[in-house]
Amino acid sequence: MLLLAPLVQNRKGTFSDLFDKLRKENHVRVRVNGEIQRLDEEIKLARNKKHSIELVVDRLVIKAEATQQSRISQSVEYALEAGQGNMLVYNLDEKDADKASQDFSQNLYCRSCDISLPELGPASFS
Description:
This protein has helices spanning 16-24, 66-82, 97-100, and strands at 2-12, 29-32, 35-38, 50-59, 86-90, 101-105, 109-110, 115-116.
């Protein structure tokens, strides 16, 4: 599975400055428009087309070992920080693309619908 931090969603541009920043921060991979690409290779995007860019925070093979729990915890925290409270978990073994990706948000935000939900309070349940 991949832990991804969404950085750009359906926006036009080349984003060369973003890729340069990620390289300086020693990141290795990004997912651009659904394809994994290495940052040490040149990434050219069409300026007038919309793009989605996610930072690959970690690639994991799920095991029941206790040592992996710490790594997953650190990766999730970093993904949420880099994605400004949003992250994606992408299951590489899932053949159905719609089921392969799961969104998680600390901001009550639905990425697939592109809407922010209101804060929950007592009035929300009456």
